[in-house]
Design brief:
The complex is a heterodimer. Chain A is of the alpha/beta class. Chain A contains 10 helices and 10 strands. In chain A, helix 4 packs across helix 5, helix 4 packs parallel to helix 6 and helix 5 crosses helix 6. Chain A is globular. Chain B is mainly alpha-helical. Chain B has one domain. Chain B contains 10 helices and no strands. In chain B, helix 4 packs parallel to helix 8, helix 4 packs parallel to helix 9 and helix 6 packs across helix 9. The longest helix of chain B has 39 residues. The chains are: A alpha/beta, B mainly alpha. At the A-B interface, helix 3 and helix 4 of A face helix 5 of B.
């Protein structure tokens, strides 16, 4: 199986960008009802890079993604997208930044009153108004073909499995050709074969689109397969960050325990 | 004693918290309503959902009120020798008060619960977050369209309820003592002006605003899974009905002052 380490980087582009991070999270704090979830976390992700965020349940992995896309406001600290701090931006201004981002929710969050095709067409209908109906239809078919769901265009979300819903969610997240892809537990609740298929799909998309991706997952095997870098969270902060080998060589007790149990 | 004081404080805090959040929500809705792009397609869908799908229920309620008013008023007016005033009594009662308030309450129940439950269900399944993550303003797409649909459709539904009420009032009357529809309407509207007819009808636009705003607010702030969805639907109906009745008191007084 191919891993993210096998994916050739577009060197020219990275040099051109000067390794400028597309997403930069700095000293981020977030608490809910006096319970601290994130305690001064800092992370960066560059173009063409995939960062897997691992950790125990309740360590704030999903909250981190929601903060990056602006669905939650941080207590303090900053989230910069292409150098722009998104804290305090009005909804419509934030919308402009979100057009460059794709988000796959943990439960896919498909619109249950729309068909699979309409779900994927939804962002296009709102942001690509210049597209004709047939152009939009073609784009939807192309996106669904990328995730292997082209034959399920007219099905309702309730008529397809969890794994298929995630594929459709991924197609919807890619509809606006995002520069940043945020994936919340893309393989959670799936059988090993479906998980492997989703991993392969993410790798294929990385190869083709060269996005900056952040993948939140519990699944160490999946993280190792799809990510260039891993960040292990503990008590709301990064316990260790690096390649899988760095985690394996770590002397930190929590890291050893996490790897042993995974 | 201290626990009673604390629960009273909690109630007061909850009261101000609710109104404060409603104010913030209203501001977001107003801001989304006056800035493009406008969601015309969703507005038309909501006009259909609020208007044409509520029409049968509203018409039935109006018709029932007209028939009951006719039967009740007939015996009372006969007792006082004022039977000839029956058409006017029915027309005025239906158009000035019964039609608007019945329409407001029926729509509060049907549409308020529908919007509250639909948006609450979308909220707890992260569909509203997905809309926002897709760079679409959920206030503009979900709240503005529904509130506008309620504002625009309530007066039209009221006209339908009024028409059915007057028609059934006539039918109930003519079954006991035959009178032509033309005569009934001619007697009923005699001496009335547009000032008598239009303000009570258009005041229901305010009912529409209340129903739409409260149902969207309750739905979009829901937490807590299926139980939260049920709570949002129930609260939408209860609060919208309550505020419609309270607004009616204020609006009737206002109409009497402005259109004496």
């Amino acid at each position: 199986m191919a891993t993210a380490y096998d994916i050739p980087m577009k060197q020219g582009e990275r040099e051109e960008d000067g390794h400028a991070p597309v997403v930069a999270v700095e000293n981020l704090y977030k608490s809910f009802e006096n319970r601290a979830v994130l305690n001064g976390i800092s992370l960066t992700v560059s173009r063409g890079e995939t960062l897997a965020v691992l950790g125990r349940s309740g360590t704030g992995k999903s909250v981190l993604l929601r903060l990056i896309i602006g669905l939650e406001k941080p207590d303090s600290g900053s989230v910069c997208i292409h150098g722009q701090d998104i804290a305090g931006l009005a909804l419509d201004r934030m919308g402009e930044i979100r057009k460059k981002m794709g988000f796959l929710f943990q439960q896919a969050a498909l619109y249950d009153s729309l068909t699979v095709g309409e779900n994927v067409a939804f962002p296009l209908a709102h942001h690509r108004r210049e597209m004709s109906r047939s152009e939009r239809g073609d784009r939807v078919k192309q996106l669904l073909a990328e995730v292997g769901m082209e034959s399920d265009l007219d099905k309702m979300p309730s008529d397809i499995s969890g794994g298929m819903q995630k594929r459709v969610g991924l197609a919807r997240a890619l509809a606006l050709e995002p520069e940043i892809l945020l994936l919340d537990e893309p393989t959670a609740g799936l059988d090993p074969i479906s998980s492997g298929e989703i991993d392969d799909l993410i790798l294929k998309l990385q190869r083709e689109h060269q996005m900056a991706s952040i993948v939140v997952t519990h699944d160490l095997h999946s993280a190792r397969a799809i990510a260039n870098r891993l960040a292990l969270l503990n008590e709301g902060n990064v316990a260790i960050e690096g390649k899988f080998e760095d985690l394996q060589q770590s002397d930190i007790e929590f890291v050893k325990e996490f790897l042993k149990q995974s | 004693m201290p626990s009673e004081a604390m629960s009273a404080t909690g109630l007061v805090n909850g009261f101000f918290d609710w109104f404060g959040n409603l104010g913030i929500f209203s501001w977001q809705v107003v801001r989304a309503a006056v800035t493009p792009p406008f969601e015309w397609r969703e507005l038309i869908r909501q006009l259909d959902s609020v208007g044409s799908k509520s029409l049968p229920l509203v018409a039935l309620a109006g018709a029932a009120i007209g028939a009951v008013l006719s039967m009740e008023a007939r015996s009372s007016l006969t007792r006082f020798g004022a039977k000839s005033l029956l058409p006017s009594a029915i027309v005025y009662s239906v158009i000035e008060e019964m039609g608007p308030i019945i329409t407001g309450l029926v729509v509060s129940g049907r549409v308020g619960a529908g919007i509250g439950a639909e948006l609450a269900s979308m909220k707890v399944t992260e569909q509203i977050d997905a809309i926002e993550a897709s760079a679409i303003n959920p206030y503009r797409l979900l709240a503005v369209t529904r509130i506008l649909a309620c504002i625009l459709m309530l007066p039209l539904l009221t006209v339908a309820a009024d028409a059915c009420g007057v028609l059934m009032g006539w039918l109930a009357q003519t079954l006991v003592e035959p009178i032509s529809l033309y005569q009934f309407i001619d007697h009923g509207f005699r001496g009335s002006t547009l000032n008598d007819l239009l303000p009570p009808t258009f005041k229901t636009a305010v009912f529409g605003l209340i129903i739409g705003l409260i149902a969207c607010f309750q739905g979009m702030r829901t937490r807590g899974g299926a139980e939260g969805v049920g709570r949002a639907a129930r609260n939408s109906v209860v609060l919208a009905s309550l505020f419609v009745i309270l607004a009616d008191v204020v609006l009737v007084k206002l109409i009497l002052v402005v259109f004496p």
